[in-house]
Structure formats: C-alpha cells, structure tokens
C-alpha cells in the first residue's frame, strides 16, 4: 500500500510556493524588452463607430503602436467564435453575430474593445489611450432581457432580431397531456441573477512573437491552454497551431471565466508581431474585469409542475429566457441549453418534461459558463418549484422530495431530458443531511428564535449535476465543435521518478496533489516521486482543459489508463527478468511478482531495465513512458442534499446563516481534504448568489456594479463554517476510478437551500440576491408571516 | 495615475506654504480615498502634499472636558486609544468599524472628514457630539464644517489640523453597512450631552444631517420607545441599487433606536 | 526619485516616480511578486504587506511614503526554511486553493495575531473584511488562522 494514495488526506504539493510568495502567475512574469498594452474600451453600450483618430496617440511619448478594428481587418484576422452549434425548434442554426478582436463598425457593450495602445510603459499606454479620438454615434441600447425581443434596436445588424436561437427539449405533447390530468399545478416565475465570476487574479496575457524562429508564445490566464491554441490558430488565425505555444502558468482561480478565448489575449500576440517581436503584456485591472470578463447566469424563467393527488410529479414545463450579452462567447450557447435543459429532471422520476429556451443578445458583457454553468440555474428552478409545491400541498418538503426521488433500484435511469443517470442514492444523502441538521428539532429552534424576535427558516436543496464533460459523440451530436476527451502521459526516468503530464489545468483544484496520489497508487511508487505537469502546450499532450468538474473523471482516468499501460509493459519486462510467463506476473504495491512465489522485481528495477535494456525482452521498445486518451462513455452525476438554516432580523431584513449542511455523493474520493475545500468554495459562491451578488446594468447599459464597492463579494463574515460530508458515495460507472467530480456542486446546490430557508422563515419567496431590503419589503407585504408557514 | 510632484512637509506652516500659490496641489492624508481616485485617473493634481510627516497633526490629547484628536490620527489609533475608549467609547467603537483593518491603519480622521463622503461614519459622530473642527486658520463647529455632499467649509489653502470632541453623558453609533463597500447605508449617532440630545445621520442623505424630530423626542425621554411615533421622511434621502429612500428612512429609525439602546 | 527602505530586513533602494505605488515598487522594482493586485478599489487585500509593523494595502500607498520604513512582505515571513506558523497552518488546514489571495491573507492574519493572540472565530471573520477569497469559502482560512494562533500561543508560553 502506498501511504499517500487514493483516499488519503494528503497536504498539497503546490502550497509551498503559494504560502511563501513564490507562485508564478502571468503578471509575475516580465520578459526582456516587454512593452505594455492598454485597451481603449467603449464607454457606450451601443454605438456606431464613425471613425477613430489615432494620430495624436501615436505621437505620444513611448507609444509603439495604436491598433484598431480596421487593422485587425486589414491583417485578415478572423473572429472569436462560439464552439457549440445550437439549433432552434425549426431546425435552423443559431444566429452568431460576428465577434471581432477589436470592434468594427459598432461597439456593442460598455467595455467592448475599440483599440489597443502598445507603449514602452503602462502609464504611457494609459496616457496615449486618452488621446485616441473615437467618433461615436450612440444607438439605442438593448439592455433588459425581458424586453430584448422588441427593444427596437438590433445588437447585430446582420441578424433579423435579437433572438439568437429558440431551443426546445422534451416531449411537449406528453407534458401537455399530463398537465391536463393533474390534480395540482404549481407555478413559479423566477430570475436567476447575473453574476460576475471574480477570480481574484484578473485576466492577463503576454504575447511574444519571435521573428527569428517565426514562433509565437502566449502566457495567459487560461483554464485550457490547448483550446486557446486551437481557437487562436484555427479561427482567429493569429498564428499557425504548430508555431504557437500557449502557457498557462499559475492561474489565480477561474470558475469558468478563464475558459474562454477573449480578444485581449489574441490581440497581444498579434500586437507583438506588429511591434517587431517585442513581448506585449496586458493585465486587466478589476474594473476592466467587471466590464469584460464573461458574466454568468442571467435567466428569467416560468416553470410549472403538475402533480397528482398524492403529490407524485406528473410533468414539468419550463420556459426560460437567457441573456447571451453582446456576443456569443466560446461556450455560451450550450450553457442555457444542453447544460441546463438536460438537468431539469433533478433527482426526480418526473415522467415528462418540456423546456424551451429563447436566448437573446443584449448590449451587455458576454455571458458564458460560471461555476456550474446551466446546472445551478436548473437546480435552483427545480428545487424552489418543488419547495413551493410542498408548501401549497401542505407536505413536508423533505417527504415530497423523497416520494418523487429516482429510487436507488432504478439505476441506470433514463430521464425524459436525454441524460442517463448511472448511479445514485438520493435518499441516503437526504437522510444524512436531515439527521445532521436535526430537521425534526427545527420547530423548537424556531420557537427559541421567535422569543428573541428573530425569524428562523430552514431550507432544503437536493441537487444533481452532470459532470465529467463529456462523451465526445454525445456532445458532438448536440452541436459541440470539439471532442471532450482528455489526455495524459506518464513518464518514468532512469531513477524511477515519474512525470505525469495532463491536458487538464489546475488553478486552485490541487491537481498536482490529487493526480500524484492517483499515479502513486496506480504505480505503487512514493507520492513524493511523482511530479504533475500541466499548463504548457509544448510540454503536455493535447488536452481539453479544466471545467465542468471534468479533470479527475476524465483527465484522471486518462492518467490511470497511462499507468495501466506502464504496468502492462512492466509485466513484460519483469517476466523476462524473472524468467516467467507474462501471464504469471502479478503487480501489487509497486512489485511485479511471479504468482504464488516470492520472486519479484520492484518497479524501480523494471524501470531501470527499460532504460538500460541490456537484458531485455526481444522486440519490446525500451523506455517507460505511456500516453493515454480517455473519452468517457457517459457524464458523471454527482448529487446531494444541502440544508440551510438561517435567521432573519425582521427590523432590517438582514439574513444570517446559522448552519449550512452539505452531504454530497461524489462517488469515490481521492483526497477528501481537497474535495471538502472545493465544496466550501462552491457553497460560498452559491450563498453569494443567493444573498449578495448581482450584476446590475442601468437603462443605458452602464454597469452599476463595476467594482467591489458595489458588487458584493462574499466575505469571511458573510458565511458560516460549513458542515460538509462527502463520504459513502455511489461509485460512478463512467470511469474505472468511480469518481464523479466535485468542483461545482456547492455553487449548484446552495442557492435553492438558502432561498427556500428564507421562504420558510418569512412565508414568501424573495428573488436573488435576497438583499435585506428585498426581505424587508417581503415582510412588509406579508400580513401574517407565521400563518404562511 | 497621472504624474505629479510629491512633497512631504514637516510642519503645518510648511504645508500651508506649499499649498498657497499651487492651486492644483492636493493634500494627502491617509490616502484611502484619494489614492484610489488617483489610480483611476479621476484626479490630476500638479502636486501631492503628504501630511504624513507632520508630527503636530498626530495624537490624541485630553483637553477641556473632551478629547482633541489630531487630523492625521488613524482610525486604528482612535479605536485602540485608552483615552477615547474611556471618555467616548462610542467614538472608539465607531472607528473600530470603519473600513477594514488595513484601512484603519492608514486612514485618518482628518482625511475622512475633509472628504466628507456622504456614507462616512465620522461626520455623524462629530455632528452629534457637537465637536469643533480646528484648521490652520480657525475653529468651527462640526455642523458648520460639513456643508454638502463631498463638501466642507475648508478653503483652498486651509488645512484641517484637529477636532475637539466634548465628552458626552451617553452616546452610541449604530450602522447598517453597505454589504459591498461596508460604508454606511445608514449610520445614526446618538449623543446626550449637557447641551441636550443630538441625533446625526450619515449614509442616508446627500450629507450628514441632524434628525431634529428624534432629538426632540429623546430630549424628554431618552429611550428607544420615545422614537416609536417619530416618522422619517424618505423624500430627501438617497436611493441607489443598495437601498431605496424608503428603506433608508426605515433604517434611520431602526438604527436610531438601536443606538439609543446601546447608549443605555 | 530614489526611494530607500528596509524590505524583509534588507536595506534596499530603487527608482520610483511619485506616482509609483508601493506594490508596484515591490513587484516590478524589487521583483518581489508574492504581493499581488486583485482590485483597484482597495478592497481585495491581495496586496497586504506590513509597514512598520502594521498591515497596510500596498496598492493604496505610494512607494515614496514608505521611504525609510520597515516593510515585510510574504517573502519575508519564513525564517530560512522554517515557515511562519501561519504559513504552516495555511498548508496544514488547506487554507488556500489558487493561492492568489494567500499572501495578503497571511499578512493580514499576522497583524491580527499580533494585536489579538486569541481571537474567536467571529473576530477572525470580522478581521478578514479586507481580504477577499473566491476559492475557499473562508472555512479553512479561518481554521488555519485559529490553529496558527494556538501554535503561536504555545510557542510564546514555551519561550517564557
């Protein structure tokens, strides 16, 4: 048994550099001869660009280049693309408006890139940016999602309306029929508030063109460097793929926002060539990040649940309007469709579900994946709807859920919205959560709060998500432009040390640790002897990167497969050395043993032999290095129950979370410490969405929440200590490790638990973020809050 | 940031001299508002005169039945000062809750009140406590010092040097903080002094103001219940994405009651 | 203009314009890139360092204002290979994920423990108002700081 293998709470390898200030993030890198880029951004939400006069700026001290959309066009660079083709109900493809690197003809949101200024110093670039004269003709902005369809103004003149697609999923006729025979229908209208991801490291990029080698290097804050390389070469055309190296060094959080290929990073690479090979660096400040990072969520939905007399779900019907922002970002189209509609069964055996989604362009920042991406929106909708149904029927919300759960015996379970759940035990996580929170004792606690003048509430959320993105054939049939396999290479050196290269990228998830544990276990070698390498297209095999809680379930499995190949090869070598038949060699705990004997060779001896093959099997290649690709047969389906208990101060409407219990089924777990940490972070983001966060644009399209002065980030005193249980999962069948993925669960499951608890406390549902004022207003409108329970 | 000249005078007189005849020069106290303003290129001073090197502007002294607090005294120093905690614990408590620990280590009382942010905490305290503001030229009542949103009675070449805060009989501050910035959405400072009861409100309006109806109600009966029948009009109050005027009006009363209760 | 200060116990001097921020001086002039910049409104706390023993936001202070000061950054916390108890506790309790806010968190916490060696969980959470973390949900950061406080109290007792 290795000491720090699968299941051990191993401390993280990556921490040493971070706690001593020796991490290496993009902005920490400074290259010889480096110039600085500043982007001039549109101050208007929607404006025609009649002309740009760069002459004064170009004459400013230190200025190396001022480039605009015209230069982009002149150099024949392509547009940014959305890589997932979604079709409308009528079969027509989505309408994708052109998304140039620098605005051409029109600026479409406040913060849209209009020009780039490259100068010797950052301050000189800022000075020159002020001297660029842009002649704007302001146009009517499309801001409010609910009015985007008839805003009287087109975000993209090329498209007949602001509707990008009108998508549907499910059997509408069956759903309508089921509603026709329902004993009860619960209806809900809700908003899923727009969020700004806010990784604490702002985006940054350094582009460097080497004219001698005719080679490009981009250091960039990326969750998926190979995807950057692919899009930048195949679509933008800024550099050919074999001459472009993309390095994502230490990255300070992503949460989705660093998946996407943005204009800025393409521009610095192109600009480096324009300034004859000077490296060009750009680092966003936080204000820029607010304006230009892809935002998340932003749905308006109407949903209905049909139930029979005893509370069994008969059907669900959902209509959602989704905001895409001004342009379709890299994966934006699939978020409110295939990562949303397909999850609407939740943990329930609802026999018929129909969902349609209208996605609109607006003059706001692009909207794309943010932690959970589509699944939080689905989970929030289902879990508030179910809670409301329980209230209307006078049923215990836990029991209504239990009654409708997909039973443990029903797996694999085919939902009416395309997915097949492989494993799960929803009652187990529900029961554990209810036990931990003492669900039955709530009434007494509520009474105690009441004596102190406080309104206490408790709320449940039984979430499910589809992770481990994803089976390539499935996503391909749904419109994905790429395969979603993952790659690995595991390489021994002479001395028995291992380098494990992965196509995923770690930006907080601790892959350097988890993957080392996995490889250590698989190869029977010490954890300390494994070094995990990621984030550089010239080191690692082509990979698809990290998002959708896929790294372990897909990338980890690729590593496991590469390890299996090494063991198979090792058996051949050991058999030769031990003069035994390969079939008789058993591998265990780092030793190759002839079955039934004590004759064995250690992994180290076998590896040395592979590299010094003086006595070696005929015909076998030397070396111990294997690659593997893994394309999963199915998604994984993490699920769990979250319970939030809170108190409200009726005088101010302030909510204080007293307890938050999270019981998750992530299947098998490699490092419980890291998994719990992932849940903690997700919970804070989910609680943030429920109580604090919300991006607000005014009518003219100005972002009112453009800094931490106005956008409420969860702080340490906004959240409680969490009670997180991740044990006793049901192993996934989609990979040999039995793992499911844990990165997004917290953000997916938490919002509904919080909102349901508030509803429970005050007798009315409040839209997110449930700010004190909203809660206070709801209380003013509630005649008898106690009676509404 | 635009470029500027930097001066670090050693005395108020030297600072005043630098200020005179340099009309685009600006004084820098703790810099907690001004440096971010500079960073965002929202100000373009010709020179920045850093008051950080002037010893006479620092420190807390017991004086004339109250405390004199130098303009360059940090929030952290006010919060932890034994003298303040003993004489006016409400003021120490208020200071301990301004911004965050790092802001309190740099931000100063003089900088805060000269900026007169409508959501700053100190203006409420100084108005309610009937403090006197001292400058390089004169002394004036705090109430006359705060003239409007981000506006004070300070003249271009005038330097705030200290505030004198009389010791109250009872006082407390209650703040409902903006969840994002942690500035006051509504902050109410209630003080009972020999001169009567004063209630000053920050965050709610364009600048700090006295809630005179509350003062009258509390004059006869210094209890939270005395405020039950006082109504706060929303008309002149701020309304923004964080709180409507109506909600602010409501909070003024809630915070006032809590302050009265805390004052005991 | 020339600016001189003591950084992590070493006398240093370098060129800075009046408008150069302390964080810029540390990162670009001295190459001490452990101090980070995460916002432009002095709220995230990724840039917290100690100046003359107190924690400050180095993005909201001019380098010239630190003339002659004693500055400590995250790079100066460990004694050789021996981690500061806070650094050790952050690792031990998984108090960091992406690591970007970590230096500021540790520097801020160090100031807390100096003035309050036995903080309650509530006091730790309140103190961290000026430090934003997007990864950890603060759970393990708070745990790490409380654990470090324990360790440091133990060490202080042992030294008596």
UniProtKB/TrEMBL annotation, chain A:
The keyword Oxidoreductase applies. Pfam families: Ald_Xan_dh_C, MoCoBD_1, MoCoBD_2. One of its GO terms (molecular function) is oxidoreductase activity. The keyword Oxidoreductase applies. SMART domains: Ald_Xan_dh_C (SM01008). Residues 20-140 form the Aldehyde oxidase/xanthine dehydrogenase a/b hammerhead domain. InterPro entries: Ald_Oxase/Xan_DH_a/b, Ald_Oxase/Xan_DH_a/b_sf, Ald_Oxase/xanthine_DH-like, AldOxase/xan_DH_MoCoBD1, AldOxase/xan_DH_MoCoBD2, AldOxase/xan_DH_Mopterin-bd_sf. It comes from Marinimicrococcus flavescens. Keywords: Molybdenum, Oxidoreductase. PANTHER family: ALDEHYDE OXIDASE 1-RELATED (PTHR11908:SF132), XANTHINE DEHYDROGENASE (PTHR11908). It comes from the Bacteria. SUPFAM superfamilies: CO dehydrogenase molybdoprotein N-domain-like, Molybdenum cofactor-binding domain. The lineage of its organism: Bacteria, Pseudomonadati, Pseudomonadota, Alphaproteobacteria, Geminicoccales. This is Xanthine dehydrogenase family protein molybdopterin-binding subunit.
Automatic annotation (TrEMBL), chain B:
It comes from the Bacteria. One of its GO terms (molecular function) is oxidoreductase activity. Pfam families: CO_deh_flav_C, FAD_binding_5. Residues 1-170 form the FAD-binding PCMH-type domain. Keywords: FAD, Flavoprotein, Oxidoreductase. This is Xanthine dehydrogenase family protein subunit M. InterPro entries: CO_DH_flav_C, CO_DH_flav_C_dom_sf, Diverse_Substr_Oxidored, FAD-bd_PCMH, FAD-bd_PCMH-like_sf, FAD-bd_PCMH_sub1, FAD-bd_PCMH_sub2, Mopterin_DH_FAD-bd. PROSITE patterns: FAD_PCMH.
TrEMBL record, chain C:
Coiled coil: none annotated. InterPro entries: 2Fe-2S-bd (IPR002888), 2Fe-2S-bd_dom_sf (IPR036884), 2Fe-2S_ferredoxin-like_sf (IPR036010), 2Fe-2S_ferredoxin-type (IPR001041), Beta-grasp_dom_sf (IPR012675), Diverse_Oxidoreductases (IPR051452). PROSITE patterns: 2FE2S_FER_2. It comes from the Bacteria. CDD domains: fer2. Keywords: 2Fe-2S, Iron, Iron-sulfur, Metal-binding, Oxidoreductase. GO terms for molecular function: 2 iron, 2 sulfur cluster binding; metal ion binding; oxidoreductase activity. Residues 1-77 form the 2Fe-2S ferredoxin-type domain. Pfam families: Fer2, Fer2_2. This is (2Fe-2S)-binding protein. The lineage of its organism: Bacteria, Pseudomonadati, Pseudomonadota, Alphaproteobacteria, Geminicoccales.
């Amino acid at each position: 048994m290795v000491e720090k293998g699968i299941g051990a709470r191993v401390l993280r390898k990556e921490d040493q550099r971070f706690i001593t200030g020796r991490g290496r993030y993009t902005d920490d890198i400074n290259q010889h001869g480096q110039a600085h880029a500043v982007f001039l951004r549109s101050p208007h939400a929607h404006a025609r660009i009649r002309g740009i006069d760069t002459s004064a700026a170009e004459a400013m001290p230190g200025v190396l280049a001022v480039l605009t959309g015209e230069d982009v066009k002149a150099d024949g660079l392509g547009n940014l693309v959305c890589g997932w083709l979604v079709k409308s109900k009528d079969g027509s493809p989505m309408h994708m408006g052109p998304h140039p690197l620098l605005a051409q003809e029109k600026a479409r949101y406040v913060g849209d890139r209009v020009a780039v200024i490259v100068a010797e110093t950052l301050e000189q670039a800022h000075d020159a940016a002020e001297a660029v004269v842009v002649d704007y003709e302001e146009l009517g902005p499309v801001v409010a999602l609910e009015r985007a369809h008839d805003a009287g103004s087109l975000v993209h003149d090329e498209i007949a309306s602001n509707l990008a697609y009108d998508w549907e999923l499910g059997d509408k006729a069956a759903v309508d029929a089921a509603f026709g025979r329902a004993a009860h229908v619960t209806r809900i209208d809700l908003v899923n508030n727009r969020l700004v991801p806010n990784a604490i490291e702002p985006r940054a990029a350094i582009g460097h063109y080497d004219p001698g080698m005719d080679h490009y290097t981009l250091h960039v804050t990326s969750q998926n460097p190979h995807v950057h390389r692919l899009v930048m070469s195949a679509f933008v055309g800024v550099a050919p793929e074999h001459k472009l190296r993309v390095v994502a060094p230490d990255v300070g959080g992503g949460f989705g926002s660093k998946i996407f290929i943005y204009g800025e990073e393409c521009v610095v690479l192109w600009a480096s060539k324009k300034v004859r090979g000077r490296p060009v660096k750009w680092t966003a400040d936080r204000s820029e990040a607010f304006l230009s990072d892809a935002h998340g969520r932003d749905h308006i939905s109407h949903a209905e649940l049909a139930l029979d007399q005893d509370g069994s779900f008969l059907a669900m019907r959902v209509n959602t309007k989704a905001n895409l922002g001004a342009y379709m970002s890299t994966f934006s189209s699939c978020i409110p469709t295939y990562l949303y509609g397909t999850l609407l069964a939740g943990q329930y055996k609802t026999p018929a579900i129909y969902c349609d989604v209208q996605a609109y362009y607006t003059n706001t920042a692009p909207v794309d994946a943010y932690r959970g991406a589509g699944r939080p929106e689905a989970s929030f909708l289902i879990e508030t709807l179910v809670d409301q149904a329980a209230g209307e029927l006078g049923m215990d919300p836990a029991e209504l859920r239990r009654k409708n759960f997909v039973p443990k015996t029903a797996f694999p379970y085919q939902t009416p919205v395309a997915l097949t759940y492989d494993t799960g035990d929803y009652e187990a996580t529900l029961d554990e959560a209810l036990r931990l929170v003492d669900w039955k004792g709530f009434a007494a606690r509520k009474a105690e709060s009441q004596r102190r003048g406080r309104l206490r509430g408790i709320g449940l959320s039984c979430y499910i998500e589809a992770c481990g993105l994803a089976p390539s054939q499935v996503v391909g049939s749904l419109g994905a432009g790429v395969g979603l396999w993952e790659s690995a290479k595991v390489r021994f050196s002479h001395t028995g040390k291992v380098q494990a290269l992965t196509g995923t990228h770690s930006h907080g998830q601790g892959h350097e640790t988890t993957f080392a544990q996995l490889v250590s276990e698989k190869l029977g070698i010490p954890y300390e002897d494994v070094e995990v390498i990621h984030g550089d297209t010239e080191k690692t095999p082509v990979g698809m990167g990290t998002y959708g809680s896929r790294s372990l379930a897909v990338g980890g499995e690729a590593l496991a497969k590469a390890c299996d190949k090494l063991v198979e090869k090792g058996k051949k070598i050991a058999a030769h050395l031990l003069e035994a038949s390969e079939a008789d060699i058993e591998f265990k705990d780092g030793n190759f043993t002839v079955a039934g004997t004590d004759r064995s060779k250690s992994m180290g001896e076998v590896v040395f032999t592979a590299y010094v093959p003086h006595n070696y099997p005929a015909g076998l290649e030397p070396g111990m290095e294997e690659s593997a690709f893994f394309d999963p047969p199915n998604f994984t389906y993490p699920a769990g129950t979250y319970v939030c208990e809170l108190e409200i101060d009726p005088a101010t409407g302030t909510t204080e979370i007293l307890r938050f219990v999270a019981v998750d089924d992530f299947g098998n777990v490699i490092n419980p410490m890291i998994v719990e940490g992932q849940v903690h972070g997700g919970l804070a983001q989910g609680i943030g969405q429920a109580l604090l966060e919300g991006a607000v644009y005014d009518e003219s399209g100005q972002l009112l929440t453009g800094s931490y002065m106005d956008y409420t980030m969860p702080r340490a005193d906004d959240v409680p200590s969490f009670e997180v249980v991740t044990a006793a999962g049901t192993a996934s069948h989609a990979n040999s490790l039995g793992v499911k993925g844990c990165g997004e669960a917290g953000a997916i499951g938490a919002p509904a638990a919080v909102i349901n608890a508030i509803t429970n406390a005050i007798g009315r549902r409040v839209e997110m973020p449930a700010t004190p004022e909203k809660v206070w207003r709801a209380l003013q409108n509630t005649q008898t809050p106690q009676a509404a329970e | 940031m635009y470029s500027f000249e930097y001066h670090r005078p050693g005395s108020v007189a030297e600072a005043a001299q630098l200020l005179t005849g340099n009309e685009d020069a600006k004084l820098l106290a703790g810099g907690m508002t001004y440096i971010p303003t500079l960073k965002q290129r929202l100000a373009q001073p010709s020179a920045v005169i850093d008051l950080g090197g002037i010893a006479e502007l620092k420190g807390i002294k017991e004086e004339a039945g109250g405390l004199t607090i130098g303009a360059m005294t940090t929030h952290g120093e006010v919060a932890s000062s034994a003298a303040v905690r003993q004489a006016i614990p409400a003021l120490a408590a208020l200071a301990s809750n301004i911004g965050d620990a790092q802001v309190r280590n740099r931000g100063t009382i003089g900088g805060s009140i000269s900026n007169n942010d409508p959501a700053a905490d100190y203006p409420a305290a100084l108005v309610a406590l009937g403090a006197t503001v001292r400058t390089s030229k004169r002394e004036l009542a705090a109430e006359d010092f705060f003239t409007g949103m981000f506006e004070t009675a300070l003249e271009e070449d005038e330097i705030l040097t200290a505030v004198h805060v009389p010791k109250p009989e009872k006082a407390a501050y209650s703040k409902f903080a903006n969840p994002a910035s942690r500035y006051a959405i509504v902050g109410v400072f209630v003080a009972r002094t020999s001169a009567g009861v004063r209630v000053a409100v920050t965050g709610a309006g364009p600048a700090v103001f006295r809630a005179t109806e509350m003062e009258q109600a509390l004059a006869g009966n210094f209890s939270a219940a005395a405020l039950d029948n006082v109504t706060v009009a929303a008309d002149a109050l701020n309304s923004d994405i964080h709180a409507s005027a109506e909600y602010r009006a409501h909070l003024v009363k809630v915070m006032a009651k809590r302050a009265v209760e805390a004052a005991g | 203009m020339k600016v001189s200060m003591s950084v992590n116990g070493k006398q240093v001097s370098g060129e800075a314009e009046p408008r150069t921020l302390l964080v810029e001086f540390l990162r670009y002039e001295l190459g001490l890139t452990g101090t980070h910049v995460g916002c432009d409104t002095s709220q995230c706390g990724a840039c917290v360092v100690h100046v003359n023993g107190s924690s400050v936001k180095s993005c909201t202070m001019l380098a010239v204002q630190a003339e002659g000061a004693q500055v400590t950054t995250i790079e100066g916390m460990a004694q050789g290979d021996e981690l500061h108890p806070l650094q050790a506790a952050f690792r031990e309790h998984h108090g960091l994920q992406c690591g970007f806010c970590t230096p500021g968190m540790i520097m801020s916490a160090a100031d807390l423990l100096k003035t309050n060696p036995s903080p309650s969980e509530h006091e730790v959470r309140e103190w961290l108002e000026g430090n934003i973390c997007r990864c950890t949900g603060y759970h393990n950061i708070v745990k790490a700081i409380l654990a470090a406080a324990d360790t440091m109290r133990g060490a202080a007792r042992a030294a008596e």
